[in-house]
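#lab-general

N.A. 3:47 PM
ok so I finally got the sequence cleaned up, no stray characters, all 405 residues accounted for. can someone with queue access submit it? mine expired

B.Y. 3:52 PM
send it over

N.A. 3:53 PM
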Amino acid sequence: VLIAEGKVAAVAAGGSIKPPAGAMVIDGRGKTLSPGLWDSHQHVGDDWNLLQNVATGMTNYRSPGSLIDDAHSIYRRRAAGDLLAPDGKISVIIDRKDPLAAQGALTVSSAAEAVAAVDKIKQAGLWGAKFYTSMNPAWIAPAAAEAHKLGLHVHGHIPAGMRPLDAVRAGYDEVTHINFIMMQAMPQEVVDKANTAARLEGPAKYGKDVDLDSPAMTAFYAELAKRGTIIDPTLTVWEPMMTSDGSAISPEYAPFADIAPPAVARSWRVGGYPLFGGLTRDDFRKSFDKMVGLVNRLHKAGVRIVAGTDGYGLELVRELELYQQAGLSNAEALQTATIIPARITGMADRAGSIAPGKAADIILVDGDTSKDLGTLRHVNTVFLDGYRLDGTALRTASGLSGMPK
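B.Y. 4:20 PM
back already:
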């Protein structure tokens, strides 16, 4: 691969491109060259964390809920060269005025105010509108129609009283979090209280008993696929919550435990969601297995999956490993964090794959990613906006003392 002036100039068989005079040559033998990674669910706002994202191979992200002023600050300083960060597409949360409204949301009290909130997001120059769990279901369709008229992406949690298919039919382009997909099969009393802990406890309690291959669920997957709906599962949110008994650091953080500051690593050793109603940790684990199985069924049906963490971003490779457990190949899992989000954001002409004319947002990692997705944690070199950045120096600057396991 020949990189020149910040872009990919040529791609050919190994060793077949003659380097121009004065070119720096990087030997990639024993390594994998990959498009830079995307975290499609990261609530940005912390400069230090953005630096660490670059250190772990992230060149792009989607933030499904940031404050407008924070978004503008990040964009402005990144453009000026004052902030080392991935490039991002940012949405703003809209929720009904309610004690359970999402923190940092634009809160509304009517359909008209919901439409006005969408207009405000567009005027701010941001990418999408994310609706939340306390929204009045009747306000979704008019607000989503306004968003689509303005060219905004529509995604979010499923409001209490709605099932995911209701939200998709009302205008959602994308559903966030696998528990809200599982809500399609939940009892009505769980659906009606989905703006409370029921959105966590319902799938934990009933998920293990859901028939993922029932006619109703199969028809559900088919309609999502037909409509082009996108799913952002964030399985790494659910894995520790459902499976952890607190005796070990969860798989998403374990590779970083020895290289993170001790106080941070200690915070990763936590128990899962408290047991309730006579349920056991094994029951919760069975429900999590159904969540992984749900990703399998969605993928088989042709529903687009994007990899998001709703965390630091360190969890991203574990998210891909869980997709592999769900039946995706290594290449298909990698696509959920590269070309698929690039297409969704309208950036596929310049990001998401390594091809002539595209931006040189590329990572070089130690090992063969086609055989082991975990190699994506072993970042050797990052090309961001065409600049070559050393993986070791990035990790040191972001507070990591070495290479992850």
